[in-house]
Amino acid sequence: MHPILPIEHDFPLQRFNTFGLAARARRYLRVLDAGQLERLHADAALAALPRFVLGGGSNVLLTRDVDALVLHMAIAGRAVVGEEHGAVLVRAGAGESWHGFVGYTLDQGLGGLENLSLIPGTVGAAPIQNIGAYGLEIKDVFHSLTVFDPASGSRRTMRGEDCRFGYRDSIFKHPEGAGLIVLDVTFALPRAWQPNLRYAELARELDAAGVLQPTPRQVSDTVVAIRRRKLPDPLEIGNAGSFFKNPVVTQAQCEALLARHPQLVHHSQPDGSEKLAAGWLIDQCGWKGKGIGAAGVYPKQALVLVNNGGATGAEVMALARAIQDDVLQRFGVQLEPEPVFV
Question: Which cofactors are reported in the record for this sequence (predicted)?
Answer without folding.
Answer: FAD
